[in-house]
Structures
1.
Amino acid sequence: MADTLLSNVTADVAMELPIKTIDTNLILYIVSIIIIAYVISYLLSFILVHVSERIGWYRTSVTMTIPLLKLLVYMVALYYIIIAVIEPSLTQMIAFSGLFGAAIGFGLKDLFSDIVGGIVIIFEKPYQIGDKVTIGDKYGEVKDIGIRSTRIQTPADELVSVPNNTIFSQPVTSGNAGDLAMMIVIDLFIHPDSDADTAMKILKEALVTSKYVIISKRYPYTVLFEDFPFYKRIRAKGYVNDLRLEFEFKSEVTRRSWAELKKAGIRPPSIVPPSADMSGQSPATIL
Amino acid sequence: MADGEKAAFAGNVIGIEREIKEITDAIERSGSGAPPHIAIIAEPMSGRTTIVDEIRRIYSDRVHYLPLKFVINQSALPDFSSLPGDIILIENCQFLTTRVIGGFDVLDTFLHMQITSKKIFITTWNTYSWHYLSSVMNIDAYFPTIVTLTRMDAPLLKQVILSRYKSGEIRFVDGGADERAMFFSVIHQSVRLPFTATEISVPWIKLNFILILHGLPRKKRVQISIEDVIFEKINRIARGNPGVAILLWNASLKDNAISLSAITVSSYSISLDPDESFILSVILSMESLHAKDLSAIAGSEMDIERVLYRLIQQGLVRDDTGYYSIMPFALGPVTEYLKKTRRLW
């Protein structure tokens, strides 16, 4: 009974919808709207990315507007396509969106959950373009937040597309949360007989004299010591001034520290703890 | 000190009277307790030497003057207790450190000697070195009085420069009214932050009301003096740095005459890689560094010759018989670039 009623209502609404005749012109019109929307969103993102590269300190503030602008462009395009095909009244629009929703629910569930994920990312900002993030087991710099997926460039220069609905099911870690500076943890393992004070002084000075470091009240640094049965660990935490240089920073501080440690007669331990790098984990998990 | 004497020196130190007073007050206040050590912080060429000369003049019988010209090592530090005078005045204290591992040892020793001494230490520092050392080792804690030289405004600069000439000696040539169209000028105001004792210099837009009124119809034509426009232009190019402004003034002055068109500014489009930016920031914060110190700071990873060649070639740095320093007119653009790329914090 209910089924018959529903089908009658939908049939009525569908009959009343002033759907325009679909001819070549209309198809060309729709195709051109899609192309224009794509070109505008591509240009916007291209221009803003280039502007952001020149702007220095506020790089991420510019890139964070890209996904929002893209969403806006596609919404406008969708609006023009709908009014090109039909000329709906308010009731028809509501009925149409109901039908549309049902279609989405059954057929395009995943696609639309990605789009909703994209909208959530844009407004909630768990990460922004330019951030160093770990989503699931993937670590890298966010290059683009699209409507359906987020593109991450890994340290090995792979471009990974992560579906946007991942944020509903997986934890997301952002190393810098929109900032250009990012905290980096540098561990040095030394022989248990070594003089920890000297080693800490050397690592501290290697950190603060690094060409990649930024130190201020907002970006403090610290050097910590911990004793383990077969080695001593000296850990430095400091901020790199541009997150793209995180590995250069780490490598520079480590290299200069070891050169100085060797001069001071400090040796590496005989047993080295397994590093997260070796077990294939992302660098961000070594915290 | 007699009042007459105080009035006499006030004329020679236009623009830094407040700083001189702060320093003399701190010295006069010093009683039996711990001596009030003073740090004078300023950008390169912004009048540190003037202030130092003035202090030497005021306390000529009490001051022992020690100017540092290059990076010094541990053995070069004198025994301050054996030096004459109860005020030790050390210029360019940024030379007590080098940005290498172990480069803070001399400064550590110096600070230890300073806080255990009964003498008053007056030290001058480059702003950027000071900020670095303040972030890295909290050097502020050793100096109860910190005097920061702020940027100058055009009227003050006019006073400073014209005080060097007799009245009417300089001719200001009017190059046409259209060149005077400057509706606003940038000035630097000192603002004391609430809840802290620190004072910061904030760039501020000052509207030129006279000129705006002049542009309005049916208003009486108010003539703005060409002198003011010239000093406004010089100060804007020099970004409030008196040393650079005086150099620019000297370069633009021909036969005791100056015109707006004679004041030319070289433009810089700076594009540097991380190594070049780093070395440039080191040179800026040390003011003058010898090639061997630079190569120690650069380390084995960096090709310092290539970096220095690139910096000199872009007109940012000059080589003065092995000592490298920033070109005076590039000072403003270099500082802006390094701040934008977060090399100066």
Note: Chain A touches chain B through 25 residues (CB under 8 Å).
2.
Amino acid sequence: MLPWEFSLAWSGACLLAIVLYLRGLRQRRRRGEATGAGRVLAYLLGVATIYGVTQTHYDYLAQYMFFTHRAQHLVLHHAGPFLIALAAPLPVLADGLPIRIRHFSGWRPIARLLRPVYRTLQHPLIAPVLFVGLIYFWLVPEVHFDAMLSTDLYQVMNWSMALDGLLFWWLILDRRTPQQGGLGYGKRIAILLAVIPPQIVLGAYIVFSKNVIFDVYEVCGRAWPLDPLTDQLLGGLLTWVPATMMSAIGVLIILSFLFRDARKEDAADVSHATP
Amino acid sequence: MRRCIMALFVTLWIAGCSDPDWQTKDISGLMPSLAFELIDENGNTVSADQFLGKTTLLFFGFTHCPDVCPTTLSRLDAATQRMDETARDEIQVLFVSVDPRRDDAETLDSYTDAFGPQFVGLTGDKAALDKLTRRYRVTYGYGEEDSEGNYDVSHSSAVFAFNAQGEARLLIRDSDPMEAVVADLERLTGEA
């Protein structure tokens, strides 16, 4: 459980995420508002997995083996943020903020400043490009090499994956209906499907490569003696299969949102029809 | 945040256009300068400061190593042989054994002597080795022992090159061609 390389940023962010959430839950319980156990579990699990891959001894393995590194990014970019976004924790987190911070008058200008940036990043055409682009970027052999050598670049890499993962799944799993300002369900499904082929191509390229593409693990030594091509094959599979499976799960969840909305509409129609 | 991004851009920019002439991997700014406290071939505790003033090549291995270590060390020896004489004297190779259980001072001494006078064998306890390997983001691990007590050791295959001031400059891979290594080493020793 203890960090391999302690990072105030990772530990602090995870701790803050948990403390705020628990405070929020308590506030809501006092007000008599219930928060689904499933959501609480998804959120805590999401934060815990992110802590697990960045601040435990697992981080050591992720630095010295390709496939464990791919698994780390699978959590940072896909699974962890997916679980967090699925829990839609924003109202709970807001409730968890100390009153003085919640009523801080500076929020409005800050929000106004950040909105254009956020809008751009969450544009339905830009978000998937960013999502896939980052995976590709950090796997450019030269870039990957430098990122694995330099402690600073390594941190930039992992943070960029986690933040982009949060943005992406936040957009996709937004609980707001399209009428409430959420992205249209068709567009969400289109984005989820659009990110599949490039990930398959990349994963397959790595899996079927006969040469070692990422020699940094050779250069720096592996966590334990493992055949480089086996390591690469496993890493490619992780980039390929579970990563694209997440899209499929995403589509199923969007469909459930769609049915939920349709049911609500039906219920509303029925209640209107019977005066 | 903005400062971080600026710093990143500047780093990438500098990295992008700094010295395209290096033929091996330029690691200036990517890795920290030379620092360690280890035990040398005579059993004495030595620190990195004692090795400043010359171009230093750092390599991790173990004397029972069947292939990578002897190949790399003889390649380095061949490379230094091809440099001109003054440059040759300005270079030292530190061979750090990550297998202190089998590599005592004596073993290291006879091992490095076989390669040449510019080779210095070093090792240390687990804590010292862990600190040093972690600093250069390399690792090592031990395979399972066979019936005769032999075991494999996984280690880095890279050679890290530091200038006379101990700053990290180059990373030499075993795939780098000999001409590239010789040219870069000559240039690096010439910088001092």
Note: The interface with chain A takes residues 8, 11, 15, 25, 27, 29-31, 60, 133, 137-141, 143, 152, 154-158, 171, 173, 175 of chain B (CB under 8 Å).
